[in-house]
Inverse folding.
């Protein structure tokens, strides 16, 4: 799929100044590290040692802006023995999700792949799936859809889920079936068995942390502050990075409970929907809103069965949210 990436001058300048900060910090005997998690005011970082990875707590210099799981940093040990993060490398790919005002906040940085988890329960919400997938497309992430809790599937629920999944299979996203409660087999699903950094995301309660627990037996799974969901289970509140034995990494992320607005950059929403974008530029009116205009190529594609009506609906919905975000912020 063709990708477009236009950085504004301001963005370019910001990246350049971060690059300079990074180089200065490295020259001053800093060590390379990666942010594992940022909870409360505290950072956890890791860095490579001979036998693998070591973790330590760290503080951040105030001028660095927000630091998130996956951020590559330079840190130094102060005389009193504390670790201080002194620079942040410019971010490559990130995943954003909205805060409660609908503004997008970066959740994790330098990731290659979105692993979108769905389950028979809680039931998948395609409107939410499309928001995550659009965010992944915009940031040029690979995508894998994982259908978890396969142990709960029966014929009826499988039919239902196949209907949900059909448009995504058509779009070319790989779909894998898995279950966090099977104990005999702990291998990663095949599309994830590489050295990439994945972020695992989706609705709250679909089993993201349980999957990581199964893939990494013996590892303490951090959920941030202890918010109890039910007996013995904790909902994740902070993104947290885990190293995989094969050289890859996986970032657990807090699930969405109720979703509201996603105020994306209005000019980029179309890049989140490659299947819709294909029809852009063929409408009768150049300023077509693709709603009820005559000669709309997108509506025509829906009518001809060449564009999924639900994808079209979600595109228009997210575009409208994005535009509303621009006028209110
Ligand atoms: N039957 C079954 N239950 C599962 C499976 N995976 C997870 N669960 C259960 O689903 C519940 C939620 O699991 P979590 O791993 O905490 O879900 P999460 O996606 O991390 O949720 P958030 O952190 O809130 O986003 C727990 O009670 C798990 O035991 C599975 O494969 N099968
Ligand atoms: Mg979790
Ligand atoms: Zn149109």
């Amino acid at each position: 799929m063709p990708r477009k990436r236009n950085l504004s001058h301001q963005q370019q300048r910001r990246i350049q100044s971060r690059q300079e900060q990074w180089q200065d910090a490295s020259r001053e005997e800093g060590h390379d590290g990666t942010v594992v998690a940022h909870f409360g005011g505290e950072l956890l970082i890791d860095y490579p040692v001979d036998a693998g990875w070591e973790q330590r707590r760290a503080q951040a210099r105030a001028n660095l802006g927000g630091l998130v799981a996956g951020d590559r940093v330079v840190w130094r040990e102060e005389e009193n023995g504390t670790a201080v993060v002194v620079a942040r490398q410019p971010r490559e790919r990130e995943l954003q999700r909205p805060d409660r005002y609908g503004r997008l906040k970066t959740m994790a940085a330098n990731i290659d792949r979105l692993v979108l988890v769905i389950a028979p329960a809680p039931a998948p919400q395609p409107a939410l799936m499309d928001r995550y997938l659009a965010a992944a497309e915009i940031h040029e992430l690979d995508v894998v859809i994982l259908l978890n809790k396969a142990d709960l599937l029966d014929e009826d629920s499988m039919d239902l889920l196949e209907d949900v999944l059909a448009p995504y299979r058509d779009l070319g996203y790989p779909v894998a079936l898995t279950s966090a409660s099977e104990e005999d087999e702990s291998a990663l699903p095949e599309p994830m068995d590489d050295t990439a950094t994945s972020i695992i995301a989706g609705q709250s309660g679909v089993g993201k942390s349980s999957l990581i627990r199964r893939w990494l037996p013996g590892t303490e799974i951090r959920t941030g502050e202890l918010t109890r969901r039910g007996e013995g289970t904790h909902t994740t509140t902070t993104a947290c990075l885990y190293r995989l034995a094969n050289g890859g990494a996986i970032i657990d992320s807090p699930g969405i409970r109720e979703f509201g607005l996603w105020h994306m950059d209005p000019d980029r929403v179309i890049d989140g929907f490659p299947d819709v974008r294909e029809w852009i530029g063929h409408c009768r009116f150049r300023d077509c809103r693709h709603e009820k205009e005559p000669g709309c190529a997108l509506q025509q594609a829906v009518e001809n069965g060449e564009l999924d009506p639900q994808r079209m609906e979600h595109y228009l919905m997210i575009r409208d949210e994005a535009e509303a975000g621009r006028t209110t912020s």
About this structure: The two ends are 32 Å apart (CA to CA).
